[in-house]
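Weekly structure sync, notes
Attendees: PL (lead), two postdocs, one rotation student
Agenda item 3: pending single-chain targets
PL asked that the sequence for the first pending target be pasted directly into the notes so everyone works from the same version. It is reproduced below exactly as submitted, 226 residues in total.
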Amino acid sequence: MTLPPRRSSVRGPGGWVWRLVAAVVLLAISAAAGAPPDDSPGTVETGLFGLEARGRRFVYVFDRSASMAEPEGRPLATAKVELLRSLERLGDAQQFHVIFYNHRLHLFAPVGRAGRPVFATEENRREARRFIEAVRADGGTRHAEALAAAFRLRPDVVFLLTDADAMDDLTADESARLERLAGGARLFLVRFAARNDPSERLEALCARTGGRCLVIDPLALPAVDD
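Predicted structure, written out during the meeting:
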């Protein structure tokens, strides 16, 4: 008697086990490639000046060089207001960290979590407000180490705000190093600058990480009490 052909085992090449394994592998590849977070619980959308991003862990990297005090203190004062607004949109399920920089780093360091992201509880946001309000503008501008410190924290999103001009742009070596460090983080850049004065490598780094850039004329910034 001729027996009917056997069906493929569930553990065979066409079985559900292999399909499940393939799905898991694809998810892992997407995560490693920096796929944007979905709308699952724990993610939230926040941003700066309308430049929006969704995630669970956010790092804010803000320029505090001397030029951020001109004209009339508006760039730094406006940046602080916008940063505080962005933090207010986070909840207890999200984490954040704040880095101000010139030629050195100035890190938000609440007790017990020095240099690390914290959950956006009301208490931690109050601590961040005190830290932010105390920041003053001075010194030069070095982007690379501030961005490297941010990427090492493995965030979903890095918001970089600077008024640096093209002469302060990343070097080719710095750009390549930062792209390697970025992992799955997306870089979103806000520049207080003339539109005909691009920071080409910073903007290219945004594009390569899946982020976006926004340029704002500093002369259009409103007067804000610092």
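Discussion points:
- The chain has two domains: 8-37, 39-220.
- The beta strands are 44-48, 51-55, 57-63, 95-101, 105-107, 118-119, 157-162, 186-192, 213-216.
Action: rotation student to compare against the earlier draft before next sync.
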